[in-house]
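Input chain follows. Return structure tokens only.
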Amino acid sequence: MKMLSAKEKNRHDGFSNLTEETIRKKTSAGDTPLHRAAGLGRICEIPKHLLRLELFLVKNNSNRTPIHRAAMNGFLDKVPKEFLTKETLTVSAEYEKKESRTGPTPPRTETPLHTAAFHGHANQIPKAFLKPEFLSIEAKGYRQTVLHYFAMSKCLDLIPEIYAHHGMWDLRDSSGKTPRGILDGLIEREAYVAHVRSESVTEKQKEKLRWFGCPFDEGMTKGQASDALDKCVRDFPERERAYYSRPATEEQMAILHAHYGKNLDEVNGPFTYGKVKDLISEFEMNKRCQDRVADLEKTHYEFILLRFLRWRVERYRHLTYSRVKKAARALDRINTGWTNARTYCFKK
């Protein structure tokens, strides 16, 4: 296959041949030639007289501008400095103007500043934008600021020391996390992963290594086994498919019978290793969800009973918690919605 020279490639892409008309042409995805050139780090190939600030603000169908594309792919430093302005670096698509419990609704789309930080290219953001004014900008429903994104990429060391005690460090996202809280969580998780990876190889890992014919010794760790298995999957994808397509093990089927009981007849076969693995995971996930709901319902239920006992009148003093609980259970069978706020009240 013939390789194109740099000159031929430029001619093929057409960046150097753009005109006033063609530079504004959009693809079905809403991209302009500038979107493409920015994403490839090749804005310099477009004739300078065609570059205008307004073109850097054009949004595609995903509400991304050429600056977003450059920020995502690590080519923000290839954008001519005169086009890295407050307007182009903080552009985003707004929600309807409305208030929520946490204040005015933030932008729907991340700004290019968020994008650069999230994709690990925070070092390409001009220093003039490493100020609280810009680092405090929120995005999306999670209300995460640019500084939160710096924390996610572990780039907080780029923030000038003069802002070390600024209030932006105390800004919380919708989960209540500050930028430093996010960084601490990442460090804690990395330490946990490192600890788990240092543990001894598991029997399941050994079984799969044997399946691939991959040698191992008893001194192997979980992390080393995981890396070896990842390589096997990449090198022998057909063996990976065969691994999950084989019949389910006796241990798996025993767990499946215990979980599903008679309802197992309703599950369509064949029961392959992969299918049964997914069924067991699905059941366990649903069980955890049901347990959480049951805990919440139990708390609500007990609150109602305790509230009744607190406000009971003199003639009901003989009612103990145990008796009220039995009565409430009986009421559950007759009217399951009796605990709704509108259906009961207590008067002193």
